[in-house]
Amino acid sequence: MNRHTNPHRGSKFDDFLREEGIYEEVEAAALKKVIAVTLGETMRRKGLSVARLAAQLGTSRTVINRILDEQNTSITLRTLTRAASALGCRITLEIVAV
């Protein structure tokens, strides 16, 4: 594509995602990936299995697997904070004006 005919030349990637109507979906997926990877790494570092974390939380392995699933963005904040707490961590959330 000729650089002079590219309608996105010079625009921010966020602007492109908004124009495409997928900004919130992409941002949620990125946030979930960071959370899932961080919790998974913390579990490995502490030698904690999915079954053991599930038992500590009084829930099923399926719930823990959903938390660790990078693609699953339908996890509640309560579930995430409980899992983080069981791992000796906490989740912080910041809303930033754009």
Summarize, please.
With 98 residues, the protein is mostly helical. Helix content is 59%, strand content 0%.
* Strand segment tally: 0
Largest sheet: none
| Measured distance between first and last alpha carbons | 30 Å
Shape: elongated
CATH architecture term: Orthogonal Bundle
Helix content bin: 55-70%
Give the SSE order as H and E letters. Answer: HHHHH
Strand content: under 5%
CATH topology: 434 Repressor (Amino-terminal Domain)
**Domain module count:** 1
Counting DSSP H or I runs of 4 or more residues, the number of helices is: 5
* Nearest-integer average pLDDT: 87
- Which CATH class is shown? Mainly Alpha
Q: Rounded to an integer, what's the Rg over CA atoms?
A: 18 Å
Task: Point out poorly predicted stretches.
Answer: none
Structural class: mainly alpha
Task: Provide keyphrases for this structure.
434 Repressor (Amino-terminal Domain), 98 residues, 5 helices, 0% strand, mainly alpha, single chain
Could you characterize what this model shows?
By secondary structure, this protein is mainly alpha-helical. It has one domain (13-86): 434 Repressor (Amino-terminal Domain), CATH 1.10.260. 59% of the residues lie in helices and 0% in strands. The protein is built from 5 helices and no strands. It has helices at 13-20, 23-46, 50-57, 61-68, 77-86. Helix 3 packs across helix 4. The longest helix has 24 residues, at 23-46. It is elongated. The two termini are 30 Å apart.
